[in-house]
Structures are given as C-alpha cells and as structure tokens.
Amino acid sequence: MFRTRFSTLFRNSGGELRNGWWIALFFLLLAAGVFPLIMLSSSLGFELAPWMQALLVLLVSLLCQRLRGKPQAQLLGALNRQWLRQLAAGVLLGAGLMALPALLLTLTGQLSWQWHGLGQTALLAALLLFVGVAVTEELTFRGFMFQRLIDGIGSWPAQLVMSAYFVLNHASALKQGDSWHYLAMLNIFIASLMFGLAYLRTRSLALPIGLHFMANFTQGTLFGFGVSGSAEQGMLSPVIAAGCPDWLSGGSFGLEASVPGLITVILFTVLLWRWRGSAAT
C-alpha cells in the first residue's frame, strides 16, 4: 500500500512522470546552466547577453522534451512554412499593439515626435536584444513549463499561474515609480494572457514570439519609449505634452503603463480569444 502511494506521488495512472516533477526538473537543469554561466561571465568580464539566455533556455527546454520522449514540434510548433507565417503575423500584431496607442496620443495632441535616427550598429544591437528577450521569455513563460501546467491543471489555470509569474519577473521594473505602478502591473498581466492565447490558438511559439518581439522593438527602437521601465534610444524621440499625466502617456515605463496601451492590449487579447485559431484549447 505504501509503495503504491509513494509511486503515485511521482507517476500518474499512465505510468508517466507527473507534470510537477517535470517542471521541477526544468528549473533544476536551468539553474545548473545559469549559475556557471553567470560565474564565467563575471570572471571573464563579459555581459550575459539576451541571446545567450535564449540559447540556454532553448537547450534546457529541448533536453527536457527529449527526456520525455516527445518531439520538439510539441514544444516549439512544427518548423515549416506555417510557422513562418505565424511568426510574420505576430510581427504585424506586435507593431499594431504599440502603434495604436501612440497614434491615439498623437491625434489627441498629447504626443509629438522628433526624428532621432539610429545607425546600423545600434539598430542591429537593438534587433538582437529584443529577439533574445522575446525568445527567452516565450520559451520560459509559454514553453515547456507552461505546456506542462496545461497538461496538469488545464489551460486557464495555467494561464493565471504563468501571468502572475510573468508579473513577478517584472517586479524590479514595476518598483521604479508610483503613478503607473498598478496600471503597468495590470497591463503586463493581460499581455501575458494575450501571449498565452497566441500559443493556445496555434500550439506553436511562432505567433507569441513574433508578437512579443515586435511590440518591444516598435515601442523602444522605433518609437523611443521605455520598454518595461528600461530607457531605449529610438529612431524617433517622443515629446510628451506638458501636463500630460503618466497614466495617459506611460511616463518613463513606456506605453505598457498607459491607459491607451491597456485598452489596446485588452482589445488584442479579446480578438485572440474570439479567434478559434488552428488548434482547439
């Protein structure tokens, strides 16, 4: 009797390792790679670039998927023309996600623009930065761990857990100010639901990666707003009208912390929720 109960603690009725233990293994392997990499970068004096983080999370995710005996297509989505089309669709949606609130603020006279321009080197650096960030965060929050939670507790409980974790991951940025603190927190939480829906509707990471990447790239590199509180130099420099409150413009945090940004992310989330996509939830 004891042996049976002990066995069910680790394995389900089908004899497979329970999803919670797979998540624990994912974190353990990630830590086994992260800590030596941090120590190495500190001793050799190089920066732990986003592409390095993305590569580490990808390798750990693929390793866990291999240990489960499952194909990588279940993790990333089938790498075919459909994957590329979904990536392109995500890029278009990500651009619109930031262009709409910027346009609204411009049309209402709360925002004007100055051309700043970026050299090829700065543009390439920004491109690599935001690709690395998008791949790292989507693999972490919509990849192996999210997919194990879906199998274990269902889609929407998994969405709520990962969205709370996504907010927690931005905690240091959210502590930078008071006027937009709760607005930014709500925006980030709903954005995570939106990225999660992009995965659930396609069962592929292509759409959420494209959406996440281009939202950050448009907000920071093209429009010159802060990205989650991190100041960015863009091709354009936004000039916020005198007296425009931070809750309307987003202040130093970026459009993510503005009411127009919140309205837009809610709109895009509802659209993804209503879209049946190519996979049933």
UniProtKB/TrEMBL annotation:
Q: Which residues cross the membrane?
A: 21-42, 48-67, 87-107, 113-136, 148-168, 180-200, 207-227, 257-275
Question: Source species, please?
Answer: Rheinheimera tilapiae
PANTHER family per UniProt: MEMBRANE-ASSOCIATED PROTEASE-RELATED, PROTEASE
Question: Which positions fall inside the CAAX prenyl protease 2/Lysostaphin resistance protein A-like domain?
Answer: 121-217
Name of protein: Lysostaphin resistance A-like protein
InterPro entries (UniProt xref): Rce1/LyrA-like_dom
Alphabetical keyword list: Membrane, Transmembrane, Transmembrane helix
